[in-house]
Amino acid sequence: MSVQTLMTNVMAENALLPEADLTVTVAELKETERNEVLQFLSERPEHTVNLVGLIRDNGLESQEHNRGTFYECRNSEGQLEGVALIGHATLVETRTRRALKEFALTAQLYFNTHMIMGEEERIEEFWNWYSDEGQQMRRACRELLFELKRSLETTKQVEGLRLATVDDLHLIAPVHAKMAEAESGINPLETDREGFLRRCTRRIEKGRVWVVVKDNQLLFKADVQADTPDVIYLEGVWINPKQRGTGFGRLYLTVLCQQLLKRTSSIFVLVNEENEKAHAFYRMCGFKKISIYDTIFLQQEKSKTTLH
Known about the structure:
Blueprint: H1 3-14, E1 24-28, H2 34-41, H3 45-58, H4 63-66, E2 68-75, E3 80-87, E4 89-94, H5 97-107, E5 115-119, H6 120-130, E6 137-148, E7 162-163, H7 169-184, H8 188-191, H9 193-205, E8 209-214, E9 217-227, E10 231-239, H10 248-260, E11 266-272, H11 276-284, E12 288-298
Parallel strand pairs: 4-5, 10-11
Antiparallel strand pairs: 1-2, 2-3, 3-4, 5-12, 6-11, 6-12, 7-8, 8-9, 9-10
């Protein structure tokens, strides 16, 4: 296949569909629509894993655990054209530009959004509709989406890789908070300590955090943020600075991915575009770049009324 043909196929896959002359409406999703929504999102699992993971974990109507509200956009024939989570993190999956526009206008009603994240082209268009009346941009970054379908082979034995327990929280939370601060500029332990620790605890109790701890020191950490049969999304992959450059992190991530790929088809991570050392690390672990994402962090507007 030529490079030109490959690029044409990629553009076609990511393109929004042509729009018929139909009106659309936006409404909050109900749990009774779960199967239809999951079917809709399953058409592009690599880009909808976070939405699917939240629905599988919390359902469509848990604003507390989803930290936002799930919305649908339907046309006048009843066809689903888009699904969005609007809240602390705003994520959208649409088939048409009009659905993207309607979600952007709906998102303007929220004033406590922390970030908007998605594929580069779609976030650019979303922002064009949102920015006039929405929260101001505080920071923006570009990220590369890496995928692993087949883990590297290793015969080396590892010791200590296990699921975290709540007893590990005092080691995990500060590291995860510092990683969040490096990306967003905000340390959640300082701005929402109780809520952040509660969310970290819940993730640990759900069996989503893998660690290596020795002599009460955290050596390795990786969080399964979303877990579906098609895709597992990893975040917060961290290696103790004393172990970096030794092959330790690559070995433990490889072994972890071997385990995870026994129950899913692929593993994804997002890496800041400027973090070239991380790019090299994931490539050495067998990951390949497949897409570009944009993340926009927003200025909080506490003086305005917060909905939901």
